[in-house]
Amino acid sequence: MSTNKMRKQLARAKRVVIKVGSSTLTRDGAVRTRKFGDLARQISSLIEDGREVVLVSSGAIAIGAARLEWDGPGDTIPKMQAAAAVGQIGLVELYQRRFAKHDRHVAQVLLTRTGLEDRERFLNARQTLCELLNLGIVPIVNENDTVATEEIRFGDNDNLSANIVSLVEADALIILTDVDGLYAEAPMPGQPRPALHDEITEITPDIKRAARGSASAFGRGGMATKLEAATTASHSGATTVVCNANTPDILLRVLGGERLGTVFVPSERMASRKHWLAFTTRTRGKLILDEGASKAIVDRGRSLLPAGVVSHSGNFKRGDSVSCIDPKGREIARGLCAYGAKDVGRIQGLPTREIERVLGFSNGDELIHRDNLVVLTP
User: In sequence order, which residues have a C-beta less than 8 Å from that of residue 93 and are 6 or more positions away?
Assistant: First the structure.
């Protein structure tokens, strides 16, 4: 698809997820209140034009640290969580006041990865967010940093925003940052700016090398996480744009079809449940497959049977998500395993007729049924 077509497609986007980071909302720990007002104005205008907007906003830790008169976000997880608890109130209060000037209500939605790994909770979150959008309310989504740890957090709001795209089946993801987009190579201090990518159809190793981490003390992301987010959103069929929050009327202009920022071309939309399996659930173990099982899954869309498993690792339970690894060590699929790790160890490599004899029970012939399996390679 040409760049002009992609931009026109953005102009037609009905449901949009917008992600804004701490580097936009704060500077050296100080809150940039005008940015909140500017976001509220632009988003309210988009809604008036008939669009639906979910705002994924960082900033709670930075605002909390400022209110606590700290120089940084805190040097321990408990301190960062405390700052988040203080700052989340201030964050939503700022948005509430700014959106009220445009007669618009906001709602606070705090999420964690473990909350969305459960399919029922995932669907409940979708129902809530969609109802808020139907009511014309702006959901302000953030990771629940007051309880999140390294094991349960999305890791950054870039990846959270991409999961929200899948959750609400959005048409576009706009990631606001402090640079104009993705450069062909990493910018160096004191050097001329390198060329800017206008459109990316494939995230190649060269593009990944050009990305580097965030320089903000309060930010957890960087350009690398934005590439991850674009990949995740792409598989939901959504167009992603990484652009500069400091450009005047950036949201109105990008969603009006102007050639600003870097646009990532979406791939074929993955079914919601498959997308949830691939990008939201966290894998708890690995199944090493033989060549025959690998081809059956990738080429013929088959279920995974015990006979195709050579070995396994991890302490996963029945119903947990596991990675399927081919003989070359590549992850080719993910799925929900019908048996726990101990039982897999007893039946791996055996024909299905042996399952009940060996275990004394059967949860079915398949380790992973094809309905609970998503292929990650072409």
Answer: none
Residue 325 contacts residue 288 (beta carbons within 8 Å): yes
d(CA 351, CA 370): 18
| Residue among 14, 16, 17 nearest 50 (CA) | 14
CB 331 within 8 A of CB 294: no
Sequence-ordered list of residues with C-beta below 8 angstroms from that of 348, at least 6 positions apart, any chain: 287, 306, 309, 310, 311, 312
Strand 321-325: give its sheet, edge to edge.
309-313, 285-289, 321-325, 331-336, 373-375
Residue 96 identity (one-letter amino acid): Q
The full DSSP string for 142-155 is EE-TTT--TTTS-S
* Strands of 172-177's sheet in order across: 106-111, 138-143, 52-57, 15-20, 172-177, 239-244, 262-264, 199-200
- pLDDT one-digit tens code per residue, 180-235: 998 877 667 777 777 888 999 888 877 877 776 444 444 455 788 899 899 999 98
Q: Write down the number of H helices and E strands in the chain.
A: 15, 15
DSSP assignments along 258-297, one per residue: ---SEEE---SPPPHHHHIIIIISPP-EEEEE-HHHHHHH
Full-model pTM: 0.85
All domains of the chain in start order, with CATH: 3-270 (3.40.1160.10), 283-375 (2.30.130.10)
- Between CA 63 and CA 65, with CA 64 as vertex, the angle to 5 degrees is 90
